[in-house]
Amino acid sequence: MLGPVILAASRSDKMRRFVSAAPGTKQVVDRFIAGETVDQVVPIVEDAADKGLEVTLDVVGEDITTPAQAEAARDAYLELVGRLKDLGLGTRAEMSVKLSMFGQALENGHELALANVRPVVEAAAAIGTTVTLDAEDHTTLDSMFAIHEELRKDFPETGCVIQSYLFRTEDDARRLAAAGSRVRIVKGAYKEPASVAYQDKAEIDKAYVRVTRILMEGEGYPMIGSHDPRLIAIAQELGRQAGRKLDEYEFQMLYGIRSDEHVRLAAEGHRMRVYTAYGTDWYGYFMRRLAEKPANLLFFGRSILTKG
Prior knowledge:
disordered C terminus, alpha/beta, 13 helices, 8 strands, 14% strand, 308 residues
């Protein structure tokens, strides 16, 4: 039951200050965050490519309070696209974006987020890659899906994310599993009320399987975001049942978690993409990683004790 507590803490400025100052924090943050700058993350992309892996890059930062900050987020992604182009890595790395970082929660946020994310999607397409819109809490999803639909008119490979813990997701999956779509399925990592989301892990896992089946049996391109060996095996079986070749769907896992499994799946012929976050505003992302798995929290606790 620690997960909901940690997720609540991810919104606390007091807890942010405590975690940031804790002596063991950097060791744990470095496990999940690839670096603070583009220069630091580029070698990781190159190393992944050498291992037969692909990546999706996320410039972390969600606490946007002004239009200027949203424009700075846009520019950070445009800088990233430029570096990928210069290094010839466009086909090995896509980008994941949170629309909150592009101003979605501000006044006229829907229009602002669309205006800021469009040039990033356009620049990505120009170097042969794509952008996936990450899912955030349930109150933002109608806006995210509307922006996704609008972007796909000009950039049809723009992807989106759905979360199995939400009651609405099976209907969303049926709507999205159309030809040409790219949909990532994850369990979900935000604190959601019982009125909109499953609270029990077993129910979330069952929903994950149902949604994965819908995506595999659809005409789009499923992206299976999970570290759970059982769910990975089920996804493989559902892919076989649906008659999919190994390059007709992919697995995605987080940077710093089960790295050996990344390589194993790629060696089996699967497309394997590593979700790689970088940047200075790491707190919200970091706390959700702690909430997802108790072992992550234990690792953090041990680091504080040994560094204190």
